[in-house]
Amino acid sequence: QVQLVESGGGLVQPGGSLRLSCAASGRIRSINAMAWYRQVPGKERELVAGIVSGGSTNYADSVKGRFTISRDNAKNTVYLQMNSLKPEDTAVYYCNADLQYWRGGVYFSSNSWGQGTQVTVSS
After folding, report:
1. pLDDT in tens, the chain (123 residues)
2. Are strands 67-72 and 77-82 parallel, antiparallel or unpaired?
């Protein structure tokens, strides 16, 4: 019923920048919050940054001052601008959305995940 599609990952040198995008599609009624998580092999998935419908944001301490999360409510899209990238930022980045969608005339709440996009920071 709802799909989250990420894009923008890739290989970048230390100190470089990348911009991730995540577009939500489907019969969406509203999106309360969107966030970016990341995961490396052998570790738990961790929150990188989040943004609620009113625009308030929060960040992991490790990315404060380097990453910026933003959203386009009209496009149901969230972005993650990543600057001054470090090798330790290497991970699979996942988009997450807390939303409501329509089905059969009724709306349902859902916490949805994208498929993930690889970010590799290496020289």
Report:
1. 899 999 999 999 999 999 999 999 999 999 999 999 999 999 999 999 999 988 999 999 999 999 999 999 999 999 999 999 999 999 999 999 999 999 988 999 999 999 999 999 999
2. antiparallel
